[in-house]
Amino acid sequence: MPVTIYNTLTRRKEALVPGEPGQVRMYVCGPTTYNLIHLGNARPLVVFDTFRRYLEYRGYRVTYVQNFTDIDDKIIARAAEEGLDPGVLADKYIAEYFLDAAALGVRPATVHPQVSQHIADIVAMIRSLVDKEYAYAADGNVYFAVDRFAGYGKLSRRSPEEMLVGARAEIEGDKRSPLDFALWKKAKPGEPWWESPWGPGRPGWHSECAAMALRYLGSGFDIHGGGYDLVFPHHENEIAQAESYTGQPFARYWMHNGFITVDQEKMSKSLGNFFLLREILRRFPGPVIRFYLLSTHYRHPLDFDLEGLEGSARGLARWQKTLDELEQRLGGRAGEAATSGPAHPLREQVAATRETFVAALDDDFNTPAAMAALFALVRETNSFLARSQTGDDAGTLAAVRACLKELGEQVLGVLPLAGQAAPSSREAQVVTGLVDLLLEVRSLARQHRDWAMADMIRDRLAGLGIGVEDTPGGTRWEWRG
Q1: 220 and 357 in one domain?
Q2: Low-confidence residues in the chain, pLDDT < 70
Q3: What is the pLDDT of residue 450?
Q4: What's the order of all strands across the beta sheet hosting 251-257?
Q5: What CA–CA distance (Å, rounded) separates 327 from 308?
Q6: What is the DSSP letter of 442?
Q7: How many Å apart are CA 479 and CA 481, to the nearest integer?
Q8: Residue 368's domain spans which residues?
Q9: HSE-CB for 342 with a 13 A CA cutoff
Q10: Are residues 429 and 407 part of one domain?
Q11: What is the DSSP letter of 36?
């Protein structure tokens, strides 16, 4: 059975047929690095990381590109507030991103391009669009002429009236049409800039991803992913530029995850109803948050509530407890053959679980159905363990263990629950000493009312899986994964 995915471009499920057999080329829009990521930002990170893992499990080689937008109006404004160079601010939050991503079990992409490092690619694309009269210069700015691209609107399927309502506000004064969007922005006093044929300036938001995707994946790459909020105008505008530039289809499949909402309203920084991932990590281990995000189908909205996270913590704890008991029963027999020992009905369920799991993920990446199959296996395994004696049916136990680790760890990325093993022996002594030293520095910072430094130490330790708690009896820390 082939992997099928819902293609936003065609509005239907389609079999995934890569342009190159056995090789999937995928681009996913990454964060704008002006703040810590919130839970809404984390959803596409987890969704597409898991999809990548699954494609690799199915035998594909995956080239996975996720960018960082490290120059943007929001970055410039935040840098001015903090008295920092915009590049320094962006680098700071790129580093923080990797801490949060690691806590969620999100693996680094094959390539993480940054806008500031690809100005030449962006300028070359814009110059070509101007030469082909798909774009025009006006007083140091360059705009894409939407009416020149006949396919504009094919991704979002919005009417011109809807596009006008939903279009992102750009520089208005010298545009020929309200729908035209900026490819290059004239430098303003105090802002970072680069030289270009149109004078000093910086790229527009929409030109960045198009140029970087083409740079690393070429025309007609397989999958472009991102949040549903990017369908219009960002992804629509990427298509217009890229296809006008190359004369070829840009991406063949478009995947979009649904919003995370709070009280049925989209979670966003602009609305002020967001929860920073770093804050949630202080209360829940990264694997629990990942489990929670995968418990709802990626295309459906997910209304955030703590009860849902607490339910995910209980559910994942059951998986881990079963895996721990299997490890205990099998002892040191890490290499126990899953086919050894007498046949048992539970062995048949292991095979059925794999089959159901794969069928669910083949069907537009249905993670809730895949996880339900693992829950059923855990339930039957616990009944089996309650009836059996230590050492009985070692082959069956090894088969279940292998299945849980393969599907729960390799594909879903939620096991082990701790997220990472605590160090031992000499390593533990070194880690303990370093953490204690950092907490002493933090204590001095608090005494001097340097709350920013104290919070930074606590947050960076949290990103490494170390929870810090201030109590009336002093500061305590523990491994949390």
Answers
A1: no
A2: 166-173, 263-274, 332-343, 389-392, 418-432, 471-474, 478-481
A3: 86
A4: 61-66, 23-28, 221-227, 251-257
A5: 29
A6: H
A7: 6
A8: 305-411
A9: 5
A10: no
A11: -
pLDDT digits (tens, 9 = 90+) for 193-230: 999 999 999 999 899 999 999 999 999 999 999 999 99
Q: Is residue 40 part of a domain?
A: yes
Count how many domains the chain has. Answer: 3
Distance CA 395, CA 384 (A): 13
* Contact (CB, 8 A) for 372 and 298: no
DSSP 292-318: HHHSS-TTS-EE--HHHHHHHHHHHHH
Length of the chain: 481
**CA separation, residue 472 to residues 334, 360, 451, 454 (Å):** 45, 50, 18, 17
Q: Which residue has the tokens 């208005």?
A: 172
> Domain check: are 440 and 382 in the same one?
no
Residue 249 · residue 175 · CB < 8 Å: no
Tokens read off for 319: 């998986």
User: In angstroms, rounded to a whole number, what is the distance separating the alpha carbons of residues 417 and 321?
Assistant: 9
User: Is residue 281 a contact partner of residue 244, using CB atoms and an 8 Å limit?
Assistant: no
Buried b (16+ CB within 10 A) or exposed e, 363-398: bbbbbeebbebbeebbebbeebbeeeeeeebbbbbb
Say if residues 387 and 346 touch (Cβ distance below 8 Å). Answer: no
Determine, yes or no, domain membership for 361: yes
The Cα–Cα gap between 29 and 66 comes to 6
Neighbours of 295 (CB within 10 A): 18
Tokens of residue 477, six digits:
């820390």
Token pair, residue 253, equals 């499949």
Per the domain annotation, does 471 fall within a domain? Answer: yes
Q: 173 and 88: one domain?
A: yes
Nearest of 72, 31, 73 to residue 48 by alpha carbon: 31
Q: For the CA atoms of the chain, what is the radius of gyration?
A: 25
Its pTM stands at 0.84
Phi-psi region of 342 (alpha: psi -120 to 50; beta: other; left: phi over 0): beta
